[in-house]
Amino acid sequence: MKELNISKCIIQKRKEKGITQEQLADYIGVSKASVSKWESSQSYPDILLLPEIATYFNITVDELIGYSPQLTKDDIKKIYTKFCKDFATRPFGEVMNEYEQMIKEYYSCFPFLLTMVQLLLNHFTLTDTDENKKALLQKCVFLCRRIKDESDVVDEIRQANSMEAVAEMFSSNFTRVIDLLDSTIVPVSGEDELLIQAYMSVGDSKKAAKICQVNLYQKVISILSLLTINASMHMSEPATFETIYQQGCQIIKSFDLKNMVCNPVAGIHLVAAQSYIMQQDNEKALDALEEYVDIVCGYTYPLKIRGSSYFNYIDEWIEESIPLGSIIPRDENAVKKSFIDVLYNPIFESIKDDDKYKLLMSRLEQNMKK
């Protein structure tokens, strides 16, 4: 917790107002010695006097005592980045103690709480037992419910509801996930298109283009994610699966997504490799794994969420609108390790001795060491 800065604040505000300690003391109804002790940090004003002192200087009580319940977007990014590094390099319990202290200090800063929920959802698996994992997921649920109950910002409430659903999904509380999300699927309203047309009508073509591109980007990524899920549901149906996979590949090519750091861009090829293994088509499985390795080895490191030549407005939007900006939500070394680990999936046992598989693994491991 930050130290109270009442003394500094009183000195600064008194000088700005051009009054003496005695004049302030007379107004408050205390002795000059009391004001002197406040300013030298020998004592603090009685709690009942704080509103009167704050009113006299035309500031809030929070400003008077130097307390800031909110964090800036940059503050939140720095804290998140530090915790990501700490989770990757320090004992989990030790880092969680610091996490809890930060939660207490900024319990009313809802953008910060949302980010801390995301942090925990990305790192809860690092704890040692299933019981502890479940407890951490319930902590996420508790924080999400607090945000939903206390925040008056619609987008914060929406994000909290989505993150609560993620926590419940990880906890295998599938019925609860349905309860949280089933009513959120509503018909498309067309508001985005209206907003774009409105900006075009007032002559702001750049703003219209940016909004159009951002919405297109979000929808394309969403479609690719849904195709990946759809492909996973049809892995044992060769013809249907092939159609879905090729649709995904076409979207990646059409919208220049290959070098964009986005889970479904690489993920759909992993699903394809698994499906081809099930179909006993090892050659196609290896081709799909080669696509996966090409993508993750082609990323620009250090990793960050970024646009492309096609989505050239995305970088600006990411920094303006996403709480973490372009920061990857996990430590980069942990992400690199996960890129390798997925290829050790037992489903690939039948091709682990294949020369192409060995070359792909070697290339991937060497690249991730850079």
Structural descriptors:
single chain, 370 residues, mainly alpha, 434 Repressor (Amino-terminal Domain), HTH cro/C1-type domain-containing protein, Cro/C1-type_HTH, Lambda_DNA-bd_dom_sf, DNA-binding, DNA binding
Cα radius of gyration in angstroms: 27 Å
Structure summary, number of beta strands: 0
Mean pLDDT: 91
Order of helices and strands: HHHHHHHHHHHHHHHHHHH
| Secondary structural class | mainly alpha
Characterize the largest beta sheet: strand count, sense, and whether it forms a barrel.
none
Quickly count the domains. Answer: 3
Helical stretch tally: 19
Strand content: under 5%
Please state the overall shape, judged from the principal axes of the Cα atoms: elongated
CA(first)-CA(last) distance = 39 Å
The helicity comes to: 55-70%
Q: Which blocks of ≥5 consecutive residues have pLDDT under 50?
A: none
Keywords: DNA-binding
Domain HTH cro/C1-type: 10-64
InterPro entries: Cro/C1-type_HTH, Lambda_DNA-bd_dom_sf
Pfam families: HTH_3
3D architecture notes:
Keywords: DNA-binding. GO terms for molecular function: DNA binding. It comes from bioreactor metagenome. Residues 10-64 form the HTH cro/C1-type domain. This is HTH cro/C1-type domain-containing protein. This protein is mostly helical. The protein folds into three domains: 6-65, 434 Repressor (Amino-terminal Domain) (Orthogonal Bundle), CATH 1.10.260.40; 73-184; 219-368. The protein is 68% helix and 0% strand. It is built from 19 helices and no strands. It has helices spanning 6-17, 21-28, 32-39, 50-56, 61-65, 73-89, 92-105, 110-123, 130-150, 154-170, 174-181, 191-201, 205-233, 238-254, 263-278, 282-298, 314-321, 332-341, 355-368. Helix 8 (110-123) packs antiparallel against helix 9, helix 14 (238-254) packs antiparallel against helix 15 (263-278) and helix 15 (263-278) runs antiparallel to helix 16 (282-298). The chain is elongated. The chain starts with 5 loop residues before the first helix and ends with a helix.
